[in-house]
Specification:
The structure holds two protein chains of two kinds.
Chain A: E1 5-7, E2 10-13, E3 19-24, E4 31-38, E5 42-50, E6 53-57, E7 64-68, E8 74-78, E9 87-94, E10 103-104, E11 108-112
Parallel strand pairs in A: 2-11
Antiparallel strand pairs in A: 1-3, 3-8, 4-5, 4-9, 5-6, 7-8, 9-10, 9-11
Chain B: E1 9-13, E2 18-23, E3 31-38, E4 45-50, E5 55-56, E6 61-64, E7 70-75, E8 84-92, E9 107-112
Classes of the chains: A mainly beta, B mainly beta.
Chain lengths: 113, 113
């Protein structure tokens, strides 16, 4: 079956702009999590959604937001982009919340100039 | 969440077993040990997890010491495609509340031909 699909794979933005990233989970998976990966901070948890509700949120400013739709697809948005937001944004899906066994997509690489 | 300590890097000859250690001396009774790996430019991949007993699947074996303060991930016959960063994660049983994972810096395993 198809894996986790993230779009776009690469994008370039300038400071102050906003960006929306999309994630389609594995069919039947209801939990979607987002992670940010940078060389300096490594992999950091952003937030998790399950059945359209945010279950958990990491330590990121309010400029980072997300949502999940009824078909389990998820989007994350970053507003007022800063240079430090340049990162690989990874989405992961899971059948249920709580299993710890996540299936990751290949990520969206964001460059902020 | 309990903290883990892993070597920064390791080498392994192709075809030999790769043994990746992880120290988690502050692990609590309800915390599981998870292993993920991340091949360059890809999202992390779940490998295996366990609580007390040793576990084996088609990818690897997980050996947890009796006092649970350390564990070893074993790749029985390493191939060049196993070159990746391996993350050892200690995760509480959240009772289904969340899929949150806290990644450390991991071990870069380089499989040599």
């Amino acid at each position: 079956k198809a894996g986790v699909t993230q779009t776009p794979r690469y994008l370039i933005k300038t400071r102050g702009q906003q960006v929306t990233l999309s994630c389609s989970p594995i069919s039947g998976h209801r939990s979607v999590s987002w992670y940010q990966q940078t060389p300096g901070q490594g992999l950091q948890f952003l937030f998790e959604y399950f059945s359209e509700t945010q279950r958990n949120k990491g330590n990121f400013p309010g400029r980072f937001s997300g949502r999940q739709f009824s078909n389990s697809r998820s989007e994350m948005n970053v507003s007022t982009l800063e240079l430090g937001d340049s990162a690989l944004y990874l989405c992961a899906s899971s059948l249920l919340s709580g299993s710890g066994e996540l299936f990751f997509g290949e990520g969206s690489r964001l460059t902020v100039l | 969440d309990a903290k883990t300590t892993q070597p920064t890097s390791m080498d392994c000859a192709e075809g030999r077993a790769a043994n990746l250690p992880c120290n988690h001396s502050t692990i609590s009774g309800n915390e599981y040990v998870y292993w993920y790996r991340q091949i360059h430019s890809q999202g992390p991949q779940y490998i295996i997890h366990g609580l007390k007993n040793n576990e084996t699947n088609e990818m690897a074996s997980l050996i947890i010491t009796e006092d649970r303060k350390s564990s070893t991930l074993i790749l029985p016959h390493a191939t060049l495609r196993d070159t990746a960063v391996y993350y050892c994660i200690v995760r509480p049983d959240y009772g289904g509340a969340t899929n949150k994972l806290i990644f450390g810096t991991g071990t870069l395993l380089a499989v040599q031909p």
